[in-house]
Amino acid sequence: MQSSVSNGKFVGSFAGSRVPLLFLINKKKPEKRITCTSASASCVCSIWNNFLYKRRIRMATDNKLRYVTSMLEFPSGAGNISALNAIILGEALASEENDLVFPSDDFARQAHVSSPQQYFEMYKRSVEDPAGFWSDIASQFYWKKKWDQPACSENFDVRKGNISIQWFKGGLTNICYNCLDRNIESGNADKIAIYWEGNDPGLQDSLTYSQLLDKVCQLSNYLKDVGVKKGDAVVIYLPMLMELPIAMLACARIGAVHSVVFAGYSSESLAQRIIDCKPKVVITCNAVKRGAKVIHLKDIVDAALAESAKNGISVDVCLTYENQIALKREGTKWKEGKDVWWQDFVPKYPTTCEVEWVDAEDPLFLLYTSGSTGKPKGVLHTTGGYMVYSATTFKYAFDYKPSDVYWCTADCGWITGHSYVTYGPMLNGASVVVFEGTPTYPDAGRCWDIVDKFKVTIFYTAPTLHVTRYSRKSLRVLGSVGEPINPRAWRWFFNVVGDTRCPISDTWWQTETGGFMITPLPGAWPQKPGSATFPFFGVQPVIVDEKGVEIEGVCSGYLCIKNSWPGAFRTLYGDHERYETTYFKPFAGYYFTGDGCSRDKDGYHWLTGRVDDVINVSGHRIGTAEVESALVSHPKCAEAAVVGVEHEVKGQGIYAFVTLVEGEPYSEELRKSLVLTVRNQIGAFAAPDKIHWAPGLPKTRSGKIMRRILRKIASKQLDELGDTSTLAEPHVVERLIELADR
Q1: Is domain 618-739 annotated with CATH 3.30.300.30?
Q2: HSE (CB half, 13 Å, CA atoms) of 27?
């Protein structure tokens, strides 16, 4: 259905039909409800009828709720738009004229949150009574001992002392028990927990929840036998084999703290993490195939352990899984006394293992994030709050149902793989696809082959994949991972991948937050292409200026969070001072996200990129995401990444890496056209100084663009590129360097 609102009339017509619909809106009596005989248009009517609901509650709304109430009103679209344009999910393609995508009546009716009113009531309680709201949800999980009262205690203000966040302190639980044993006891023993797809087509396996528990217990027993105790660290350096989530869950079962390191990091990066967390055991495999290439992981681990030993940190055990598809054990370098084959020892252990009950505030995992310089930051997440938050965000943001088959393409070496491959899905009893390979091997249709094979219904990925010759009819919800998705990419994802049937959970969150913070809830409210929309339950986003003063209404500024949420990280391992300085001192009284954000007149949130990705051109502060979005609006531009470079006149110049749509040749005319597009959409001050043709962009496997590498290329600091081993396609960097002067 396509529609518009103007002069007090809502006019609509169904795609493919010339029969008009006319909903008269009495401007003098807007509280009068409207009705509609069409089932597919009833959701639009219901949004308008929410007007009355909002008017009733507006006067009773406190400061915490002033922006989420806007969803209860008929939205007016983002930007300089004189009338509303909208489509209904499943009935028409989204175009640049469509500012809103409404959930279909059928989808909304079956959703966990089926209306703006329901969201508002839940959100209202979550910020006015956070302890009560989250306690009710936490009670759905198993606790050996209930937590102390109150459920939450915090100091979020550095001016009042050390930053401290505690949720469910005193409660005893175990996240592995809640992922596996609890689901088995509820009747899901024979439900598939993991569908595994290997690097090479035709290589697949699966585990039921019962079989997964057996393997987790065997590894837990082995770890205990070699001296791993509660609180000890275990480094996991594995590719996306089933053994990776098995290892995570096995550590959690015995109270050990796992630190998963992406199996693409260099030996130097791995050594830094080993030196910092001092693990009792390192778990790896001998090799892995990525596409057609064999990567010798054990050699990388050996080099990292040697480097660690030079720095006084020795690891006694290196448990190695023999990945025979990539490399036989005969070809693996071996150190007797330290190296142990997984297959020779772990399967001999019992398939039952006692659970180590841990306090909700006991550490669960360390995950290291790295910048362009300095020591990696060990983000520390604890057990109880993270468990409750990751499970709840997964359920609501993806509208998860027990019949769903779920696939997230991120690696467990990133926070996405922790929260939305392993813990969040399994806490909900989901069937999860785990994929070892790359999305373009042996061809660009690999992902869609997997979607069709396993009948994936919820697909969480970076929306840059080709779509050819596959049905994808099983899909019902899409999620966007990695970079903030621009409106054009959003429409492509919606129109092509989801065939206009699937709502998109275009989420904003961070390693530090543990789970989604601002996210659409499918079925609850209309989506705007490119907007993360509204905050998740318990999250209180604010936008502040450079002095830390909250900005009201339509605005742009620094995104901060008021008050804690259960999934928040508690510290940086061994460096609480850096934790406070980085996240809590920039704007006292708030958690500073490091991101810029705009809020439109309807209260929708639009992420504008990292604040350190703001370019200061002759005094104009320009968000890189804004320039990127303008570039991608050009019909011949598939993707863009913008960085700042030194400019002798303007202070900083704008340097744009541009990937063209397939088949488009580079040309001077096209370069000028791209620059003109930015000038027209933003202004002359934002026009790129340099267009750098880019066949591809350097990205991690979770879809995050490695901007530090782009900055070095733009600045011609090629000897300072640093570690590129985490890239999904490292050869992209060489190609970008070759094209630097074209």
Answers
A1: yes
A2: 6
Phi, psi of 478 (to 5 degrees): -115, 150
d(CA 735, CA 697): 10
- Mind giving me the DSSP string for 669-709? HHHHHHHHHHHHHT-GGG--SEEEE-SS--BBTTS-B-HHH
Cis peptide before 150 (omega within 30 of 0): yes
Instruction: Please give the sequence-ordered ranges of beta strands (E in DSSP) within 576-679, or none if there are none.
Output: 591-599, 605-610, 614-617, 620-623, 637-647, 651-660
The sign of the dihedral angle between the CA atoms of 70, 71, 75, 78 is positive
Q: Are 172 and 145 in contact (CB under 8 A)?
A: yes
Tokens 């089932």 -> residue: 39
Q: Give the neighbor-by-neighbor strand order of the sheet with 504-506.
A: 204-208, 192-197, 431-435, 405-408, 458-461, 477-480, 504-506
DSSP reduced 3-state for 543: strand
Q: CA dist 254 to 227, 398, 513, Å?
A: 11, 30, 25
CA distance 547 to 406: 43
Q: Active-site residues: which are they?
A: 612
Cis status, amide bond into 239, omega within 30 of 0? no
For residue 648, give every residue at least 6 positions away whose Cβ sits within 8 Å of its Cβ, in sequence order, or none: none
* Strand partners for 195: 206, 433
- Answer yes or no: same fold for 116-599 and 618-739: no
Q: What are phi and psi of 505, to 5 degrees?
A: -90, 90
**Segments making up each domain of the chain, as ranges:** 116-599, 618-739
Measured between alpha carbons, how far is residue 39 from residues 14, 44, 53, 71, 241 in Å? 12, 10, 21, 22, 46
Q: Alpha-carbon distance 558 to 549, whole Å?
A: 10
pTM: predicted TM-score of the whole model, two decimal places: 0.82
CATH architecture of 116-599: 3-Layer(aba) Sandwich (3.40)
Helix intervals (H) in 460-525: 487-492
| Beta-ladder partners of 369 | 377
Contact 602, 78 (CB under 8 A): yes
Q: What is the 3-state secondary structure (H, E, C) of 133-198?
A: HHHHHHCCCCCCECCCCCCEEEECCHHHCCCEEEECCCCEECHHHHHCHHHHHHHHCCCEEEEEEC
* Distance between CA atoms of residues 509 and 40, nearest Å: 33
Rounded CA separation 337/323 (Å): 21
* 10-residue averages of pLDDT along the chain (742 residues): 36 30 32 37 43 44 70 46 55 67 92 96 97 98 96 97 98 98 98 97 97 98 98 98 98 98 86 95 96 94 96 97 95 95 98 98 92 70 98 98 96 94 98 93 89 96 67 91 76 88 93 96 93 96 94 94 98 96 96 94 88 72 80 93 85 92 93 92 84 91 82 88 74 88 69
